[in-house]
Amino acid sequence: MSTEPASTPQANSNDAYLSLQGVRKEFDGFVAVDNVSLDIRKGEIFALLGGSGSGKSTLLRCLAGFEKPTAGSIALDGQVLNALPPYQRPINMMFQSYALFPHMSVEQNIAYGLKQDGLKRDAIAARVAEMLALVQMEKLARRKPHQLSGGQQQRVALARSLAKGPKLLLLDEPMGALDKKLRSQMQLELVGIIEKSAVTCVMVTHDQEEAMTMATRIALMEHGRIRQVGTPDEIYESPNCRFAAEFIGSVNIVEGKIGEDENDHVTVVGAQFPVPIYIGHGITGVSGQDVAFAVRPEKVWITKDEPRQAYNKARGTIEDIAYYGSHSIFHVRLPSGLKLQSNFANQKRWDSDGLTWGDAVWVSWDDNDGVVLTA
Length: 375
Ligand code: ADP
Ligand code: MG
Description:
The protein contains eight helices and 20 strands. The chain has helices at about 55-65, 105-115, 120-135, 150-160, 180-195, 210-215, 230-235, 240-245; strands at about 20-25, 30-40, 45-50, 70-75, 80, 90-95, 170, 200-205, 215-220, 225-230, 250-260, 265-270, 275-280, 290-295, 300-305, 315-325, 325-335, 340-345, 360-365, 370-375. The strands form four sheets. A six-stranded mixed sheet has the order 6-7-8-3-9-10, sandwiched between helices. A hairpin with a 2-residue loop joins strand 9 (about 215-220) and strand 10 (about 225-230). Helix 2 (about 105-115) crosses helix 3 (about 120-135) and helix 4 (about 150-160) packs parallel to helix 5. The radius of gyration is 25 Å and the shape is elongated. The model is unreliable at about 1-15 (pLDDT under 50). Adenosine-5'-diphosphate (ADP) binds next to strand 2 and helix 1.
């Protein structure tokens, strides 16, 4: 019998503020969220990242109480939430459309929930002033939503969401309504405001860049399941599976089998690469097992001369150069047919080391620059 940990509702680990245990959501037999367990710390900005239909919004709606999980438990600050309706949860969800009341001013929008709660006039005024200062909208307090830019509307929506001091802030695709330039500015602004207010935040996004820049940790989702949880750099540098490696950033994948599997190194061998690929750490695998080796394009070097290292190098031909301004991506074709990408930072104008289309080159990388993926 297997001894894998069961999803017990009380199994909160010490530093978990928000704890999900075995959460599952079915719609007429279709499993939208599949056995999700997560521990989220107080003050985190935690991102649920995944493609369309991976179950991110459904999971967020379970937290908010708009969906009732088919199984599993959700606890926040020691309180099990499952039986509570949305309005009794100490949670606020900010919608992508912001859902601001169009006929109310900025300050009236922010005050709305506080009035509903029956707070005294003075207390409301003080809290609204605090929120206006937090999102730097003091000067625009009397304006109506249609007199504000997209970014300003978002700040008001955020102020309104935070006014009642929720324990948990939920954001579903918060930048969805903004254009690209404003988006990256608002990402940083939003992080600043969330950090200042010290609220714990779970956000949903399909945009890996957004998750990377905003989140303290990311849960990568596929088909309702969590494939990997980690800090942005953990997921980027140490993806635990091919899906994670390919979802975030671009990556070179070499397919092969495990050659040697030792404590301090492992080799990957196969027809795609002319020599064994040497990785300077052990894995849990067996010789002959099918694996993939993954290395990021910025870790792959292109040189005209043969590198001095014994491993992790191959001859190839430059087939394509894509210019992106800040960097260029070189595509190098190996005799096996495998195409590898290498990033070249354009730090000086017109400097690309004199490499051009059709050049015969070497590609190489260091022992610790790639990872072996067993799944
Ligand atoms: P995401 O936010 O990651 O794009 P969703 O959580 O919205 O994904 O949806 C996950 C899956 O669940 C999708 O296949 C979607 O069609 C399905 N789904 C979501 N809500 C419902 C619903 N109310 N009824 C039936 N199926 C639903
Ligand atoms: Mg969604």
